[in-house]
Amino acid sequence: MGDATDKIAEQWAAVRPDLDATPVHVVLRIFRSSRLLDQRVKEHFAAHGLESWEFDVLATLRRAGNNGTLRMSDLAGAAMLSPAALTNRVDRLVAKGLVVRTTHPDNRRIVQTSLTEPGRQLVDTLIAGHFSHERELVDGLTAAEQRQLASLLRKLLESLGDGSDH
After folding, report:
1. Are 30 and 77 contained in the same domain?
2. Which residues belong to any copy of the HTH marR-type domain (predicted)?
3. Residue 82 phi, psi dihedral angles, 5° rounding
4. φ and ψ at 38, to 5 degrees?
């Protein structure tokens, strides 16, 4: 018994037996897992009237402490977004009344984004369900397997240049 990745690797082995398809087993499974996880997370937030990116920005602000306030540059880095993409997303969240944009009191060149009370309440309401949903998504693995996979994925991400400063 195998999955689609096994089939693809077998096909490559048949037409190009000179190539080592071992990396295909890892990379393709990560790609396929990413797409499936992304789809399920999007479905989860859509059921609550949110885009997954909206929750990501709100959760990033909530995790930051500082009364749910971050400089736009810090928020862009923490949310792994370009400044232009973040500006567009923050504009949409401002329109929904979930965040506000202000200038820093000591330096008007610094733009800050803060959760509004409705934004904070929304994150706090959804986070437990989000964690529960993520638990269901990885429930096919034991707790020890989840820890092992998390460790291996951290090692892979670090080798790809995704350090703790991202």
Report:
1. no
2. 23-158
3. -70, 155
4. -60, -45
Distance CA 101, CA 71 (A): 9
**Over the stretch 6-33, which tens digit does the pLDDT of each residue have?**
999 999 999 999 999 899 999 999 999 9
Two tokens, residue 117: 């009370």
Helix (H), strand (E) at residue 99: strand 99-103
pLDDT beyond 60 at 166: no
- Do 121 and 86 belong together in one domain? yes
Contact 92, 73 (CB under 8 A): no
Which residue range is the domain that position 11 belongs to? 1-47
Is the CA virtual torsion 113, 48, 39, 63 positive or negative? positive
Shared domain check, 131 and 91: yes
